[in-house]
Amino acid sequence: MKTKVKYLILGAGPSGLSFAHTLLANGEDSFLVLEREAEAGGLCRSADVDGAPLDIGGGHFLDIKKKDVLDLVFRHMPREEWNLHDRVSKITIRGTEVDHPLEANLWQLPVEAQIDFLESIAQAGCVRGQPMPESFRDWITWKLGDRIAEEYMLPYNKKIWSMDLNRLGTYWLYKLPDVSFRETLQSCLERRATGKLPAHGQFFYPKKFGYGEVWRRMGVALGDRFVPNCPVTQIDIETRTVNGQFQGENIVSTIPWTLWPNMAKLPSEVIAEIGKLVNIPIDVDYDPTLQKTPAHWVYDPDEALTHHRRLVRSNFCPGSRGYWTETNASRSGPVKHFRHHNEFAYPVNTLGKPEAVEAIGRWALGKNIHPLGRWGTWEHMNSDVATSLGIEAARKILAQR
Question: Could you tell me if 312 and 61 are in contact, meaning their C-beta atoms sit under 8 angstroms apart?
């Protein structure tokens, strides 16, 4: 006999969990959350490694800015169980650790290096009023100048994506700040940072647990409405039946679209659009070595290093030691201590992706399938954004009843 519900939620990451708990908070209990893993959390899960928590999906932190997100999170893990941190993030450049963002902290480099970067910024295409280029590589140089491009942004992006960078679009680069020659020069002269703080200027992290603990609790709090160890293997689109066992009036999908062609009969045009989507796998590796840095995390653009980022857990996770790295799996070497492989880690902002995602979403909504979260929208997002979108989506769908 099939289990029938109004909302069948695929995936128990932050977006799926926040959608489910928003339904519950508004009196709707006809839903199930199906999760392939043994516990909730998705990319935000944690494991005990070398006597302390390690976030196996990479570096995740709770931003302080979204009240609806904090209200939901603190219901399941009260505020007193969290430490508040002032973000310390660094970039390794020319053998020196410089505060992030680089353009606001060039003053921390030797004077000769400051002059190199300042001269480059002054000659950047956007500063000189040159037309905006279309290719990713040229856009980065136009935006930031050749020195920041060649010594930081281009090698860093080559390491993360491990592909021809001109396969990437430029539509997502609005996140990069404008670089003002005047402000950068002022910063170097006054020897202080200028401009806006980056995202996560402050963040919460649990006092006694990894970041995955709050999401684990949220899964447990759903009781029988949370179905762990339940990988999705088959989807009947017309009846919205999953694995021949669970049927929903609506499906809310947070799982990667690239898995769907193996699970469901899809129109050829939808399969073609899904074929345009690209993701990269990331390996998270633990190393017990003490890091002599005050940073919570460090960006390492040096292409001689396999990883692109270090998370120094001893600086934000009490009682721990060592650090973990994030590495594009195609660059990973042998396992030395502990590794967790994330096959689906980062969606890639390739050329044509927005149009493909829009076409897939339009078809899905016509079948009462609602895309949600990082993989439903194929958008890289922090956990607080995914949570906020889950809350918003649930409120919207409830308002349409």
Answer: no
* Interacting residues of 156 by C-beta distance below 8 A, sequence separation 6+: 299, 301, 308
Residue ranges of domains in the chain: 3-79+207-281+347-399, 101-190
E-assigned strands of 35-190?
Answer: 46-49, 52-55, 62-63, 82-86, 89-93, 96-99
Per-position DSSP letters for 258-284, written without gaps between them: GGGGGTS---HHHHHHHTT--EEEEEE
Band of pLDDT at residue 196, cut at 50, 70 and 90:
low
Confidence of residue 200 (pLDDT cuts 50, 70, 90): low
Q: What is the pLDDT of residues 144-167, one digit of tens each?
A: 999 999 999 999 999 999 999 999
For 25-60, write each residue's pLDDT tens digit.
999 999 999 999 999 999 999 999 999 999 999 989
Whether residue 101 has a cis bond before it, omega within 30° of 0: yes
Tokens of 74: 């603190």
Query: Directed axis angle between helix 14-25 and helix 383-399, to 10°?
Result: 40
What six digits make up the tokens of 397?
């769908």
- pLDDT tens, position by position, 280-326: 999 999 999 999 999 999 999 999 999 999 999 999 999 899 999 99
Assess contact for 45 and 17: CB atoms under 8 A: no
pTM: predicted TM-score of the whole model, two decimal places: 0.94
193: closest CA among 302, 124, 98?
98
Output the CA torsion 212→252→360→379 (10° steps). -20
The whole-angstrom separation of Cα 255 and Cα 149 is 34
Which H helix or E strand runs over 390? helix 383-399
Under CATH, what is the fold of the domain 3-79+207-281+347-399?
FAD/NAD(P)-binding domain (3.50.50)
pLDDT bucket at 129, cuts 50 / 70 / 90: confident
Alpha carbons 292 and 273: distance in angstroms, whole number: 47
Q: Give the E-state strand segments of 30-95 in sequence order.
A: 31-34, 46-49, 52-55, 62-63, 82-86, 89-93
